[in-house]
Amino acid sequence: VKSSPVKITNASPETVSPLAPVATEPAAQQLTVCLAGVPNAGKTALMNGITGGSFYTANYPGATVTLSRGKSRAEFGPQITLVDLPGIHSTAATTADEKLSCDVIEGRNPSIIPDAIIIVVDATQLERHLKFASYVAKQGKPFVIALTMVDLLAQSGQSINTTKLGAALGATVIAVDGRTGWGIDELITELRRVAAEPGNNQDALAVIDDDPVKAYPEIERLLEQSGSLRRGRAMQLAADTFTSRLDSIVLHRWFGFPIFFLILGTIFASIFWAARPFMDLIDWGFKQLGQLSLQVLPDSVISHFIAEGVLGGVGSVAVFFPQIIILFFLMTLLEDSGYLSRGAALVDKPLSHLGLHGRSFVPMLSGYACAIPAVLASRTIPSKRERLMTIWILPLMSCSARLPVYALLLAALLPGAAGKAGLALATIYLASLFAGALTAGLISRFVMRKQTTSMLAMELPLYRRPLLKPALRITWSRASAYLKRAGTPIIIISSILWLLSNFGFGSRQPDLPEGTRPALVTSSDLDHSFAAQLGQTMEPALHPMGVDWRVGVGLISAFAAREVFVSTMAIVFHVAGDEDSQQEGLLENMRTATFPNSEQRVFTTSSIVGLIIFFFISLQCLSTVAVVRSETGSWRFAALQLLFYTGIGYAVSAATVQVLRLCGVS
Amino acid sequence: VVDFARLWFYPFSAGFKLKFIFILRLKESSMSLLDAKRNRAYRIKGLEGPTDECRRLLDLGLTPGEEMAIVQSVPFGDPLVVVVRGMRLALRRSEAAWIRVE
What we know:
heterodimer; A: elongated; B: 6 strands; globular
């Protein structure tokens, strides 16, 4: 059994933080300040308040789970570099995030050496948060305590005298509200003062015992002195507050789940319907931009590369941006209000049966918009096994890149029956949830057996009304981080695929009169491109699926992003014309397409069903693979996932086509 | 801990007095939080469970002597919502089983 007592580093503040130059050259010294605290203490809100939301982070729904850095706003005087450390549940650091935070606080991390630390303390839960503060105080760094959630305290008719509390603790305590910016300038002023005169760590906080059994009574005694201890029986504290009344509704034995699904359904609906006009606008904008660049730039391979490869790639990411923004915004609102952890508590029981965690529901929901933010959101899951399990099943969630593909294939399968197609689409979405559950269940039973006990022990924060402006700010910083994160691999991959489908050995340009040059992507070109050669090479493998090499080219190009399948099909099936007539022409050409040198149709009921199943299962998104690799830190995991889903997708699809054909369905 | 079905028979059995006292003692001594009633305050006696996990519960403030109560039933009866140190906490039944209360 590993019991790791908190190690107190003996490094004196002078050696850890080079503060000596402050006296001689005050202007040159830029302070580095870390924000530390227990999860849910309000660190991210405070970070937003100090930096004005302009911090760089790879921070996704849930809580602060990676380091984010930012600069303080100009109105707070000389610039301060702020580092938001991951929340620490327990100083016996169990997760990588906690270990990193502990390393920084204890001065063992060479890359981040804080000059001072802001300890973020929730005023409604002084005892627990001060226990953490005592751990920080022991490390010998100058610190200031930022007291958050003071507004919640006022709701229940309580107040804390920060001067008295500070005197009892022997530390500086400043009440702040990161969301409105109240108290931040005072905090910064105190921070500078404390950082300039380090070494005063013989305070009451630093001598508190590490052992929680001894520490809590000591903290209670200190709070008693300052008059901040709310004494009361557990029941009195629980009884008849707004939070407990709301909890008795949203966690109700019968109504809990209907409310949960109602909220989920609302988010789901707004991802799809509210985002639609914006997505169309962005799609149209990028098409125009591509055409414009073709007109403006001199006609060359480069201009086509920019218009179709690069802009097309950027467009295929940007088109999902409205959905991502709406998703992140609603998630931020839910998180701020306190409902998100209730949702996690509700579904913990069923999900833990599948080897997942209550918190897995946030990534799973995000997965219906895009797998990439979903993979990033799974960081908030505490145990590694459950996090990996969640990431493993995320590609099955029917992401919105699949939607255009399903729409095309269902229109080909059920011509003229929009109602039936809609029903089929709903079935596909539900089925993807069940497929995820099944996969998780099977893997947790047979592959990744439980090795360590996982824990829920999750705090349910008090409800409070989310504020619009801070929520928008956090949404923006999360969404732009997503764009950077997902955009880079998508642009690289789509560029590579563009090159593959536009260049090839023995490429043959049709003879044309002088001066007129065909668009680079003509089907005759595509027939001889690397992609086509690859498609023709893998043609034998495509026969079990009942399709020919042209569909194979579509399947390869879909690895850039699944919806690229549709535009590739338009190219390989020789469809010309603008966007509106394209869909009709494509459907017509698909209907009449036959295998070379035979009368047999390519798109029959069985082969379309096979294709739908293939898209349903296979991980046709190299960007997801790239993000999974960077999140899990393992190429093996990412490659295994890619091979697993694509292999199973192929096998199930081929088997379905063959069985359907045996049963007489063409 | 207290078997109410058997309690009915004790008045008719020979060792009635002795057994009844024994049962009362059991009632007084610690029990698992799982057996605790809803909306009633209990005092934590201690934690019995895996070391690392119990350390986390201690860090959360579930220290001996502290009062806690189960305040909310959740669909499926799992997790339990408890109040301790003015904080609402969702605990799985497996975690609640480690907590001895009186």
